[in-house]
Amino acid sequence: MTAEDTRPESWHAALHRLQREGLPHVLATQVTSAGSTPREPGARMVITADAVYDTLGGGTFEWQTIAAARRRLAGPDGECQAGMSLEAFSLGGRSGQCCGGFVNVLLEVFPGSATTLAIFGAGHVGRELVRLAAPLPWRVRWHDSRANAFPDWASDQPRLACRHAPDPAEAVAALPPGVHALVLTHDHAEDQALVDALLARGDTASLGLIGSRSKWASFRRRLRDAGHGEEALARVRCPIGMAAGGTGGDKTPYAIALATLAELLPRVESRERDDQRGLDPRELRHIFTDNAPTTFR
């Protein structure tokens, strides 16, 4: 192992990785400095719920910055939201340090991917779905019960996790709440087991199944006999990709995948943004005069 292998990850490397992977994080930037301070304006660090990358100089001031960042990651109601805040530190007052200087730190909160898409099946349509979903700001969990089912290129795709999943119940149990699920494996019995487990959870944001209307009619009878009510069964979309694969339509894997994502997009909730975003210039004078933390979105 070389020295470079053990070198801590820099803030810019961590920022690139976390944004690529769609994980929540905060970028802390020292924007002002007066008197004696540990670092200079422009110093940065990246903070997650369980890690810190780089430093603003250490000491109580840095720990207070980390704590403030993690409060924003947790959010007032347990949900991280994008936004910015400016924290003011008197290094002889609030931070209890002997430097005696004054620092303002801008905290930029990146909440990560709001949507998780679970795809079951690494066949032709599954592969096209994963390729087409790559530019979208979603985290994708790709499952297949067969060993060595995933293509080599999958290891280079951002926000994508490939999972060998021979047990449908275990694979479904590991999903986060509010997941959008698409079931398209190589085996009808496996498809039914997955839909059964997903319906039993009761917390999926949407559930789509590949196949024909006759396949769904058969599944529906069996799932009803297994105890699933009409309201739950009505939430299953089958067939998926109808815009491409309907009667006389294009039934190629690419066309089915494209139509499936087009059907899914309206179901994916996007974060609402306020008309006013970032820093209102009129607030600058108040912030730097009163040294009071101000939050804006």
TrEMBL record:
Domain XdhC Rossmann, residue spans: 117-264
Q: Where are the transmembrane segments?
A: none
Q: What would be one Pfam family of this protein?
A: XdhC_C
**Domain XdhC- CoxI per the UniProt entry, residue ranges:** 19-74
Top-rank taxon of the source lineage equals Bacteria
Q: Its Gene Ontology molecular function terms?
A: oxidoreductase activity, acting on the CH-OH group of donors, NAD or NADP as acceptor
Protein name, per record: XdhC and CoxI family protein
